[in-house]
Design goal:
With 403 residues, this protein is α+β, with helices and mostly antiparallel strands. The protein is built from 14 helices and 17 strands. The protein starts with a helix and ends with a helix.
Length: 403
């Protein structure tokens, strides 16, 4: 261990072996019961690289001492992507946070916070096409590593469709990937390479025009055409958000729609609450569960879960359903979260992401496992995630068998 510490100290300027830091960096946003914590291992250290050279140096140490690396952004994912399942080096990318706007795109390092990026883009007359509802805290590299849908996905699709290229680091150095090869990095939680920076397509303009409509979920499907962003909040969630006790649809447009006879005040309230659930999850005892549904079956699924607090985010080709569960006992609540996804699958849906919990769902490209073996033959890049099972995911599979 002494030689490891010495080698690491030569490789990166900022490193930490303190036991409290190691404990804090062992988990991300996901809550883990005392029983399941036996499967979590504290990292041996945490590093905060400031440039590509330090990242590559840490990877070289990882390879030399056969110690895995786990990349970490803001740790706002609920899928355990940054949870440490083995003794490892946690690479905290928070200090790689610079960006520049050029040629109608923005090139941002992995540690840039989405909302900070959006604010700076607006000063230059641009805006992000899509960003997550965890934007006040989550980072560029973290959300791309997870993949998914967010604000703006109705018009612009998932985050992968808005990436021009990604620069990643692996044991062979730094490379730029784009086009079809992006599928081996978006949504794979850093298991095939560490995201250093990305080139994102942006849009011109500022804040959208927002409108609120009180309607049923089924009727909302007829109203979203042409919108930049649309999300549906049922009455139970509306009470939590302070938006009233009615089922409500938020419609956001990139330009003014003076001909629409909808509620502007309600629309602006719903828009201002789009980040509220991230704060609520930190302040209250609630658990999120989410699934992706086809448009054709989303109304039927919604009827089954409407008694929960529910938000639906509309994307180009699917609807993301988010259920909010009050925590009333860890295991019973976790079982309900799993049943939410199981029910979605009956309607042609799927889990939102894989991470530590759902690698067995096989929602990623079928060639991803072969690709990982080629770029990471010693399985040192975030092992046990995305496409590889682990002890906790095996227990999740058992929970799925409960009727």
């Amino acid at each position: 261990m002494d030689s490891f510490k010495m080698e690491l100290s030569r490789s990166v300027r900022r490193y930490d072996f303190h036991p409290i830091q190691r404990m804090l960096y062992s988990q991300d946003f996901i809550e883990i019961s005392p029983f399941l914590k036996r499967f979590i291992k504290y990292p041996v250290c945490i590093v905060q690289p400031e440039n590509d050279e330090e990242v590559l140096a840490v990877l070289e140490v990882s390879r030399r001492f056969k110690i895995p690396v786990v990349p970490r952004g803001a740790a706002t994912s609920a899928y355990g992507g940054a949870t440490t399942l083995k003794k490892c080096i946690v690479i905290d990318f928070s200090r790689m946070n610079s960006f520049e706007i050029k040629n109608g795109c923005v090139v941002a390092e992995s540690g840039v916070v989405w909302l900070d990026l959006e604010k700076e883009l607006k000063k230059a007359g641009y805006a992000l096409r899509v960003y997550p509802t965890s934007a006040p805290a989550s980072t560029v590299g973290g959300w791309i590593a997870q993949g998914g849908y967010g604000v703006g996905s109705l018009k612009y699709g998932d985050i992968g469709k808005n990436v021009e290229w990604i620069e990643v680091a692996d044991f062979d150095g730094v490379k730029r990937v784009k086009g079809d090869e992006l599928k081996y990095y978006v949504g794979l939680f850093g298991t095939t390479g560490l995201i250093l920076r990305v080139c994102l397509r942006v849009r011109e303009g500022g804040e959208p025009s927002n409108y609120g409509v009180k309607c049923s979920f089924k009727d909302s499907l007829d109203l979203i055409e042409g919108a930049y962003h649309a999300s549906y909040v049922n009455r139970n969630l509306g009470k939590m958000l302070g938006c009233g006790d009615s089922d409500s649809l938020l419609l956001s447009f990139e330009d003014q729609k003076s001909e629409l006879d909808f509620d502007v005040e309600l629309g602006n309230i719903l828009w201002s609450r789009r980040f509220y659930l991230l704060k609520a999850a930190k302040d209250t005892n609630i658990v999120f569960t989410e699934a992706v549904l086809p448009y054709e079956t989303a109304p039927e699924f919604y009827q089954k879960v409407d008694k929960l607090a529910v938000e639906a985010i509309f994307a180009q080709d699917c609807v993301v359903m988010l259920g909010i569960l009050p925590e009333r006992g860890y295991y019973s609540t976790a079982l309900k979260a799993v049943k939410f996804i199981k029910m979605a699958e009956k309607y042609g849906g799927r889990t939102y992401a894989t991470g530590m919990l759902f690698p067995h769902k096989k929602i990623l490209d079928k060639d991803a496992a072969d690709y990982k073996k080629a770029v990471d033959p010693e399985n040192l890049l975030n092992p046990g995630k995305a496409i590889q099972g682990n002890a906790i995911s095996k227990l999740v599979r058992l929970a799925e068998m409960v009727p």
